[in-house]
């Protein structure tokens, strides 16, 4: 398998139109090569606020910049089944690295995509720097082989904790020089 993209941003979102827009812009503006990044959005089918803002504001922005994206619609599952959103977004992506992202996160590091890509070929769970450097990877960055091996990224809604625990036990957890405000 030779993925079309280096990185897929897995971004389930609900009702946070303006923060979603800021979050996306921070990723786009700080990327070294945004054409190698695929955005995977997940919207609840009853989220008219988020869907309309995406259609009217975010989508034209992404189209103008020729950024690759896919938006999937879900029956609402809530936070209790967050992993199901992320797993499905990952299954529909086409990238070497799968990045869990949040609609209120802001990328602070210029060249964040290049920093992730430095680890291509390594089977590691990467962690960014966040507030107080939580011991878990708050925004887990997993190689696509994780998905290919298990058939999912996480079986648990607290995916950051589950993935980090697996990575610690396998001694494959690594913090990289990428900073995110959350």
Could you walk me through the main structural features you see in this protein, from its secondary elements to its overall organization?
With 182 residues, this protein is an alpha/beta fold. 36% of the residues lie in helices and 27% in strands. It contains six helices and eight strands. The chain has helices at 17-30, 48-64, 82-91, 112-117, 144-150, 159-170; strands spanning 5-13, 37-44, 68-74, 95-100, 106-107, 125-129, 141-143, 173-181. It has a five-stranded mixed β-sheet with strand order 3-2-1-4-7, with helices on both faces. A three-stranded mixed β-sheet has the order 5-8-6. Strand 2 (37-44), helix 2 and strand 3 form a beta-alpha-beta unit. Helix 1 runs parallel beside helix 2. The radius of gyration is 15 Å and the shape is globular. The termini are far apart. The mean pLDDT is 94.
Span of the ends, CA to CA: 34 Å
Specify the overall morphology.
globular
Strand % is 25-35%
- Biggest sheet details: 5 strands, mixed
Class computed from helices, strands and strand pairing? alpha/beta
Order of helices and strands: EHEHEHEEHEEHHE
Topology:
Blueprint: E1 5-13, H1 17-30, E2 37-44, H2 48-64, E3 68-74, H3 82-91, E4 95-100, E5 106-107, H4 112-117, E6 125-129, E7 141-143, H5 144-150, H6 159-170, E8 173-181
Helix pairs in contact: 1-2
């Amino acid at each position: 398998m030779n993925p079309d993209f280096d990185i897929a941003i897995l971004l389930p979102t609900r009702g946070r139109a303006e923060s979603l827009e800021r979050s996306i812009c921070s990723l786009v503006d700080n990327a070294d090569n945004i054409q190698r990044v695929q955005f995977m959005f997940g919207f609840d089918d009853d989220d008219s606020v988020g869907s309309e803002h995406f259609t009217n504001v975010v989508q034209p922005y992404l189209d103008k910049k020729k950024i690759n994206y896919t938006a999937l619609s879900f029956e609402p599952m809530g936070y209790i089944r967050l992993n199901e959103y992320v797993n499905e977004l990952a299954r529909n992506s086409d990238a070497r690295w799968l990045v869990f992202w949040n609609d209120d996160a802001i990328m602070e590091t210029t060249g964040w995509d290049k920093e992730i890509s430095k680890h291509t070929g390594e089977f590691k769970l990467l962690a960014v720097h966040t507030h107080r450097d939580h011991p878990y990877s708050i925004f887990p960055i997993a190689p696509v082989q994780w998905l290919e091996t298990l058939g999912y990224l996480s079986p648990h809604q607290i995916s950051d904790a589950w993935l980090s625990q697996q990575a610690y036990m396998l001694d494959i957890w690594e913090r990289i020089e990428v900073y995110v405000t959350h």
